[in-house]
Amino acid sequence: MKPxxxxxxxxxxxxxxxxxxxxxEAVETLFRQGRIRGTxxxxxxxxxxxxxxxxxxxxxxxxxxxxxxxxxxxARGGDPxxxxxxxxxxxxxxxxxxxxxxxxxxxxxGFLGSNGITGAGLPVATGTGLSLKVRKANGVAVCFxxxxxxxxxxxxESLNLAALWRLPVIYLCENNQYAMSTPVNATIAxxxxxxxxxxxxxxxxxxxxxxxxxxxxxxxxxxQHVLKQGPILLECLTYRLSGHSRGDSCxxxxxxxxxxxxxxxxxxxxxxxxxxxxxxxxxxxxxxxSTVRTIIRDAVRFARSSPDPQPFRQSxxxxx
Amino acid sequence: MTTRxxxxxxxxxxxxxxxxxxxxxxxxxxxxAYGGAFGAxxxxxxxxxPERVINTPISELSVVGxxxxxxxxxxxxxxxxxxxxxxxxxxxxxxxxAAKARYLFxxxxxxxxxxxxxxxxxxxxxxxxxxxLTAWLLHVPGIRIAAPSTPTDxxxxxxxxxxxxxxxxxxxxxxxxxxxxxxxxxxxKIRPCPYGKAxxxxxxxxxxxxxxxxxxxxALRAHAILxxxxxxxxxxxxxxxxxxxxATMVESVRRTGRLVIADEACRSGSVSAEIAAxxxxxxxxxxxxxxxxLTAPDTPIPAASNLEAGWMPxxxxxxxxxxxxxxx
Lengths: 320, 328
Description:
The structure holds 2 protein chains of 2 kinds.
Chain A: H1 7-32, H2 47-55, E1 62-64, H3 70-75, H4 80-87, H5 121-134, E2 141-146, H6 153-165, E3 169-175, E4 178-179, E5 182-183, H7 196-199, E6 204-208, H8 212-229, E7 232-237, H9 255-262, H10 266-276, H11 282-305
Helix pairs in contact in A: 1-2, 1-10, 1-11, 2-8, 4-11, 5-6
Chain B: E1 2-5, H1 6-20, E2 24-28, H2 44-48, E3 53-55, H3 60-71, E4 76-81, H4 91-98, H5 101-105, E5 114-119, H6 134-138, E6 144-146, H7 151-163, E7 168-173, E8 180-183, E9 199-202, E10 207-211, H8 214-228, E11 233-237, E12 240-242, H9 246-256, E13 259-266, H10 271-283, E14 292-296, H11 305-311, H12 315-326
Parallel strand pairs in B: 2-3, 2-4, 4-5, 5-7, 6-7, 10-11, 10-13, 13-14
Antiparallel strand pairs in B: 1-8, 6-12, 9-11
């Protein structure tokens, strides 16, 4: 794949990051207003990882996502209107209203689903890598997971299987410093998550997850590696700038810590780089902002005006 | 005419289906050169190579999870879980993904995953190598459950599982592996057996006896004794527990007015409890006696042979139950 380094691609990346940010902010507002129910885990502050990763992938690749999956899905090309409709519990949502925030997928995009079970995507991505290998198909599987999932048995088992069988899987940890309220230093023995790669004899790379270009380049390299030599573990360091989910007061984090990470917010950081490179001009920035605003507005309109799912079809999809 | 053991039936079906469909792969502990703990995959590594007969580390959770991922992306994995007790380690991908994929994601998320597992007591393997935890998965919508009692049904039900698009739990009772049957057709010619269609083994109007898996073999012994005493039982082999052929049981109970259910597992929350509830819902007017459930007691499975024999329902228990329920 030719690396998308053109001006247009960088601007596209910026628009995607902004779209994810605004989408998640809209979701938080809609929750506060009581217009959507259930739960949702916003990816505010983690946009560079989703966008940088998906920029480096090919259409034949697969992705498994997490409970914090809206950003991954949008970055992979998911339709924000259908994602929003799923959050509204509408028939036009990706799962027809049956899934909600944590359960959406689109096979045509190679997006094998977000997942409400912490770490459950790890073996699924492993099996996808196995499938690619056995079918001698082109492509890789990318497994997004959080620092919390690195304490699941599935993490260790999956890395072991993929390393033994040399599967084309990129295990991409989004270390946002907290498993819900529990900090990484209370969950990760041995110093770091990336250090665990050594135990399975695979490369482990630490990446600045708030730097879009760093993520893009790391995943691009990782993709080439896993196609030839088997799995890799990437640990992208980041921080969620909002709560874990709706209703999280963030009483476990100090304001100072949050401020420190806000200074490293991936969105203004990438924007500043674009401006400095002369890629993003004032009118261009305004155009992108307006485009994103329209997409979000249309998504909410679409979701609100879509029909409810038909209750009598509830058992469809269950083998009998 | 040719006789086959239950194990041979499984092995030859796997082989025939793997030749028929290149997407089928096998995964499991010691299924390679060793041939599986019960010999069901013996010789298949040589025939199909390590890419399709994948000997795995002891990682039930991620092997079943990986099989689910592979199933959703174009393969048809068959996972052997050496003992059903070990399925406890693999519940998450089965319950939270494989079973739900099609309901949540629609037909794009086909999950043709088959879990073969050795269940059942009777061989002195003790409390953690003898359980039949079927009821746990009967409770989860979206998983089909096959519990064959004969080599012929094992062939037909396994073929259906391997050609379908939904996850299947395929139960192989350890005491059945050595049982033999004369096949009327070669394995390759035996037709896939539909799920949700019970087999009426013997016809009679005195009492309905429902069983599956190993319990059906005990029921056949009970029938031999009872028929000598002039008691005619309607014996139903459920063959699959999900979907469950309630209609055949209801029809039978309407004729006999009496129902004995033989279920090897512990009593509380068991498959037999589900059957009893269904029959009571749909045929209580026809019952001339309370439904009788023969189950194991609510205890772990003991290892000593006399304790284990006492723990499992037997043909003698069935004969006694039929005598009691029919008043003869």
